[in-house]
Amino acid sequence: MDSKRPEPRGRVALWIERVAAIMLGLVTVIIFISAIGRYLFNSPLPDAFDISRLTLAVAIVWGLASVAYRGSHIKVDLLAHAVRPGIRRWLDIVAWLVLLIFTTGLVWKIGERVVSQFPGGESTMDLRLPHWPFLGAIVLGLIAALVMTSIRIWRIWRHGEDLESYEKIDEEHLHE
Asked: Which residues contact 113 (CB under 8 A, 6 or more apart)?
């Protein structure tokens, strides 16, 4: 079996996807254990709600970073398919620039929140776990999304790529 290693950007994207998958799996385990504890033993997992919602937020932003690289999200291309390829390319660039600006705003605002939470801000109710590590992981995921979105914009502008090349399942990565 011929196994080709993905290019460095692809390897980074795989690690980003793994972080998102681990966080999503952790949310599932926390909710499952808490439900079993609540209904079978009348003792839910302490702070299951807070921990699961914060962990889910981490999973979502790391998933955003993956989407920023692969472009494998739900999209409606009614306008894009009605115009010439050159105009479509500029529409893609503008759309990705809007995402880049939006993500930059999120990094700025959530980054401010991490800085304000660090010296002893909010914590969970039962275990008194601080929120700032979760918020820090969210900011790291958003920074990864900024980097991956920038790479996507560069690839569209420089190489004329579009999202169609990322629509198919990459068979070689399914077996890793």
From this structure: 135
Q: Model's pTM, two decimal places?
A: 0.79
Helices (H), 42-131: 48-70, 85-117
Q: What is the pLDDT of residues 13-34, one digit of tens each?
A: 889 999 999 999 999 999 999 9
Note whether 43 and 53 are within 8 A (CB): no
Reported as a single tens digit per residue, the pLDDT across 84-94 is 878 888 888 88
* Cα–Cα distance for residue pair 34/36, rounded to 1 Å: 5
Q: For residues 135 and 153, what is the distance between their CA atoms, to the nearest angstrom?
A: 27
Burial class (CB in 10 A: 0-12, 13-18, 19+), 4: exposed
Report how far apart the first and last C-alpha atoms of the chain are (Å, whole number).
Answer: 13
Write down the pLDDT at residue 46: 92
CA dihedral 149, 151, 156, 158 (to 10 degrees): 150
Residue 17 three-state SS: helix
